[in-house]
Each structure stands twice: as C-alpha cells, then as structure tokens.
Q: What sequence folds into this?
C-alpha cells in the first residue's frame, strides 16, 4: 500500500528517464532561475556559465537575458493581473480556478512519479555538480 499517496517502487521495473540531457538542462535552468537577479547576471557572464554551455548542460536558448522590452512586457502583464483582480473580472476568477487545478494536477503527477524518477534526479544532480560545483554552490547560497 502506498505511504502518503506515493507509489511503492519495484526495482525490477525501473525505467530511467530517456532524455538525461533535457533533465540536466531543466535542473540547471531551475538552479539559475532561483538565483537573485544580481547573482544571475554575474553568473550568466561568467566562465562557469560558458563551461556549462560548452559541456552541453544548458543551451544558448536556456540562457535568457531580459531586455528592457521583455522586462516591460512582464511588468505590464503583472499590472494587468492586479487590475483584473481589483475589478473582480470573471476572467481573473477563471485564471485563479485554473491555477488551483494546475497545482492539483502537478501534485498528483509528482506523487505518482516521484519515486520512479528519484534515481534519475539524483544521477543528474551529481552530474551537474561534477561538471560545475561552483555554480551550484552559488545558487544555493553557500
């Protein structure tokens, strides 16, 4: 019986994630996106970042540098959300309901597959640390 809704893993049926490169890139992108803005800017211009691109851990498209227009577009969207919330717009209410449902679905998928992919996640994290441990330490605030 599953404990706290998690699936019990049978080691004989273990199937690794097929695209390990995409998994590594997702981990790296998440790590970089969690950095404070100033650290992220310094990291994106660093040799560590260039090494990760050259090693194929992250693609050039993953390294996103916001321009003034991109930043303005993002801020306008946030302001539009706030105005819709203030006015009680029905579209805002639909968006909120959708996000609640999205979080429920994400949690259901996580509960269903977390034990099955844990081995792959650990392997990808070790590979990321092995290739660039300095960047990882910076991202977690060490």
A:
């Amino acid at each position: 019986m599953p404990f706290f809704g998690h699936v019990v893993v049978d080691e004989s049926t273990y199937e690794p994630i097929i695209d390990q490169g995409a998994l590594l890139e997702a981990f790296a992108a998440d790590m970089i996106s969690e950095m404070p803005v100033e650290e992220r800017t310094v990291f994106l211009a660093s040799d560590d970042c260039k090494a990760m691109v050259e090693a194929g851990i992250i693609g050039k498209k993953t390294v996103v540098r916001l321009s003034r227009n991109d930043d303005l577009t993002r801020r306008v969207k946030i302001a539009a959300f706030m105005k819709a919330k203030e006015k009680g717009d029905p579209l805002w209410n639909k968006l909120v309901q959708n996000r609640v449902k999205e979080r429920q679905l994400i949690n259901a998928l996580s509960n269903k597959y977390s034990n099955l992919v844990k081995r792959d996640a650990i392997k990808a994290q070790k590979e990321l640390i092995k290739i660039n441990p300095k960047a990882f330490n910076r991202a977690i605030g060490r």
Summary: The CA atoms of residues 33 and 130 lie 20 Å apart. Residues 90-131 form the longest helix (42 residues). The two ends are 40 Å apart (CA to CA).
